[in-house]
Amino acid sequence: MMTSSLYIYTPAHLLPARLPFLLNRKLQPEVACQEVLLEKLDFEQLGDCAAQLQEHGLSTTLHAPFSGFNAGSSKRGARNASLKIADQSLQLAEKLRARRVVFHPGLTYGATGKKLDVWLQNNLLFWPEFLARAAEINCIICIENIHETTPDIFVDLLTAINSPQMGHVFDIGHWNMFATGKLLDWLNATAPYLKHLHLHDNHGEQDEHLPIGQGYVPFSTLFNWLKTTDISPTITLENHNLPDTELSLQVIRQHLPKV
What we know:
CATH topology: TIM Barrel
Number of strands: 8
Radius of gyration: 17 Å
Structural class: alpha/beta
Number of domains: 1
Helix content: 40-55%
Strand order of the largest sheet: 1-2-3-4-5-6-7-8
CATH architecture: Alpha-Beta Barrel
């Protein structure tokens, strides 16, 4: 039976304002760094928020910026930009005492063959220094699926990295839009590396981030799988407003009451 931890999407620049709500409801934030540049965030203030959460037995996860990030790029400029983003993200993760740090893969839609091989080799060179830092601050770096049609590239990467500090974050909304295989095939293939989940719904064409149950994502299959597996990934409800989050919370309480 799953005994996981639940988080809700919270834009980084809004964390201080939403802290009373989170504390009152005993909810944990996934601090998302997409809307405001890392350079414009007050790391000390965010760290103070995390300390207050920790005093109430609550923790955080961090979603690193994805704009301009590609750990698999061969271009010097893109690589340097990605190194800076990863460095700053790990600094913020330390301030937040984050359990997970989510990064996008940076792969272009439809990448195949040699492009995947190059991406994989560049990732193997990119991550070791950050995995060492993740170990020091007791967090796990998680690579999220975006456009990928199968889990193969993630299995290849995580098998080659072979580190307890790196895993897969499975975004079921992205899977519903781009994957070509069955949900259970993806889950079973990535199970040894599955550390985190992003849950939101859509109708298969746009990244709508709807409440669970309002689109075509087969959540019953996921929930049944989680109930019968011995892994315990953390979970983020990735709805982008609080009313939608409330609706997803109701579904989670019904189907995964132990989360």
